[in-house]
Amino acid sequence: MTSLTTMPRTARAAGPSSCSHPSKPSLPGTPSRNGPTLCVCIAVLFSMLLFSILFGSLFISLFVSLFESKLLAAGATSPLPQMGPPIRGLRLAELRDTFDEVHHGHRHEAIDIVAPRGTPVHAVVSGTIQKLFLSKAGGNTIYEFDDAGVYCYYYAHLDRYAKELREGMRVERGSVIGFVGSTGNADLRTPHLHFAIFRLGPEQKWWKGTAMNPYPAVVEAVRRENTR
Ligand SMILES: [Zn+2]
Asked: Which residues lie at CB < 5 A from ion ligand 1?
């Protein structure tokens, strides 16, 4: 009972001082006003946190899907276009998967197709002759890009190029682009075509790409030609 009578008196005594100083912050002994404000503040902070987490994850997933679609557009997962055989009249028994073999101290990352010197080499897909390059290892080489600019086809150790072949020139699948030889570091006694496929990066540089095993695609091409 004593508390009931003293409480209002204390409140009344505090009254005038709070009126004369309206900007003065409330005393800690008045939980009836601060309690709900604190609760509201916590609720607002909590919902802000929840909001940022929700939208943060939404933003991340949106970014990831955008990145994936960009990769798709760059052809990172596009299938290899159907190829023609680089050399005509091959038998399946003449093909060997040497992609993972070590040649001259490096992983081969290509296949070698042995054929007599001067055998015509055909473009395996329609595309553009991106680069004609004489390299120490590859000898006379051709870098051909497919029309989508996703894959690069590499033909090396050529004896010579086809007469009219120029950089930037468009070629159709099956066109003769060069002739089998042993230029570069190939054994003079075993002329062959060193054939590789690279998946180009977004920068589409002829010297930059990820090697893909060409063996399955060449086998398919030879099989198609033989069943025709
Ligand atoms: Zn080779």
From this structure: 110, 112, 194
